[in-house]
Amino acid sequence: MAEPLVAIRNLKLEAGTARGRAAILRGIDLEIGRGRILGLVGESGSGKSSLAACLIGLTPANTSAISGEIRFDGQNLVGLDPTAFARLRGRRIAMIFQDPMTALNPLFTIGTHLVDVLRHRDPGLSRAAALSEATAMLVKVGIADPEARIAAYPHQLSGGMRQRVMIAMALLMRPDLLLADEPTTALDATVEAQIVELLAALRREVSGSIVFISHHLGLVAQLCDDVAVMYGGTVVETGPVDAVLTDPRHPYTRALIACEIDEDDAPGGRLLSIPGEVPDPVRPMTGCIFAPRCAHAVETCRSEVPELRTSGDGRRAACLRFEELP
Amino acid sequence: MTRLFKDERLGYVASRLLTTVLIVFGAMVLLFALTALVPGDPAKSLLGPQASPELAKRFIAEMGLDQPLHVRLWRFFGAVLTGNLGVDVISGKPVVQLVASVLPYTVILTFSAIGLSVLIGVPLGIHAATHRGSASDTILAFVSVAFIAVPSFVIAIFLLLIFAIWLDWLPVLGTSRSGEFLDEARRMILPTLALAAGWIGFIARLVRSSMLEVLGEPYIRTARAYGLSERLITYKYALKNACIPTIAILGLGIGRLLGGAVLVEIVFARPGLGRLVYEAVSERNFPVVQGAVLVVVVLFVVVNLIVDLSYSAIDPRIRRSSGQGAGA
């Protein structure tokens, strides 16, 4: 197999909080294949967005320590000089955010947003050329009447339209790595479906790899090639989407899938949920991070930290007992 | 789309103009009430207790004070609308002439003080926000608060002592009699500094806090995620957003200085609207008070109208919400 675009090794992220140092990422090992779409799933607080923040070099201000390695096309992004990182952003790495309502500056037109990022990518580009390129991209992301929209301010567009603009902005960069942080979560269900369709249709437009963050397994199954399931700042299972979702090895992945199926089958009914609480990032990890909530946990699960182990078909799971589980 | 946009904007301008006119009329009624309702006999207080009853009676009749209130209010409105602010009861000069003779001094002083505050305060505020927690941020915070806390006339006295008396660099008092531009400009320096000091501190604090708020917004993170330079982010994307509260305060500041620079005017022996009102009040010279305050009110309201329109030009959302409000 070709060398992956991104290889993450033992990535740890700590943040200072009022209650002490919190381990946001507890040693992530993950690869993002070239031209592949990786779905990153997990509950809120599992570290999905923090992982994306590390990949684009915009960790929150309270970050106290970051260690490990993120090899992006051979270059280590951990500890990379800020100006060098700024050169990667908007040229090789781009990002779509969760809430399109706040991700665009209210005082500037759509055109200004698009032209500025285009001219950051390509400083020699004239404003007129940038505008026509931007207009063409708006058409591609399904915006009717692009000339009028390009002169419009964000508040004059609907949420779905704004997310289309954000997608256009990202695609204009022709990034090697596109991070999409729950791009449909803040939208209405019908608009969400449209945006997912758009993303699926635009796959061909993106030559690079995509990281699609979501807490919605159905979307990941629909869009992604690979999936990484995150829990408590760790990756508990990863591999090709079909394999992982049809035959999950890790108890947490199984629980997550069970929740999702229940949600789909019984709308408005009682939701199946995983008993227990999301692990406290301030407490150190002494055993399996999922052990306190795991139905299959035994004594060794609480004392030994499981590593990601190959479970066949290019899949890996961080569970000491996956072979023994039914 | 574009047509609708223009209508929104026109509606906004129209509604703001209407409120401006209403405020000026309200101020005229209040100012009229001031002279009509203040206790005491204007004839006695102006002519002195020795004045003969005939003289007092003639004075009252000349001033129209024997007419019923509504007639007097109507006459006052009519006079003001034709540019007649009445006659100074002491010197006999038209009030318009008095106000016109001091107005340029006040306007120039106000705008140069506010202009200087913006020129110095805005960059300082941006620096403090982008270097949050640094030594320069801490020092700036201290100096700003000190400047805000010390009254401008105290600063005026210190400036006079240092630059005009000890160092003898600048003229001490008054305005240029010859009307010479350079001489007048030199005489403006100290009063401008005295008035601007507090405003520099105030604007620096305000710009700092609005910049910090804006820099934490998600759209700034978007700009960073696309690798835009910190300079572009600070001066284009963030500053424009941070401008709005600052401009609102500038409107109030200009209004405040137009009528309220009296102590600095007195310290530097300069003529001005504030001083004119102050002296007229102490002499119970009501036509002058009325006329001068009305001019201050009109200037204040016009400045704030310009401010409102200017931030509707900066923030497209303001046009929209107010336009809808006016249409409803």
From TrEMBL, chain A:
Q: Name one GO molecular function term.
A: ATP hydrolysis activity
Biological process according to GO: peptide transport; transmembrane transport
Q: Would the keyword Transmembrane helix be found if you checked this record's keyword annotation?
A: no
Its subcellular locations are: Cell inner membrane
Q: Where is the ABC transporter domain?
A: 8-257
The domain of life for this entry's organism is Bacteria
Q: Which residues form a coiled coil?
A: none
Give the record's GO CC terms: plasma membrane
Which CDD domains does UniProt cross-reference here? ABC_NikE_OppD_transporters
Entry keyword set: ATP-binding, Cell membrane, Membrane, Nucleotide-binding, Transport
Task: Classify the protein's membrane topology as the record does.
Answer: Peripheral membrane protein
Q: Which residues cross the membrane?
A: none
From which residue to which does the signal peptide run?
none
Q: Which family does it belong to?
A: Belongs to the ABC transporter superfamily.
Protein name per UniProt: Peptide ABC transporter ATP-binding protein
Q: What is the lineage of its organism?
A: Bacteria, Pseudomonadati, Pseudomonadota, Alphaproteobacteria, Hyphomicrobiales
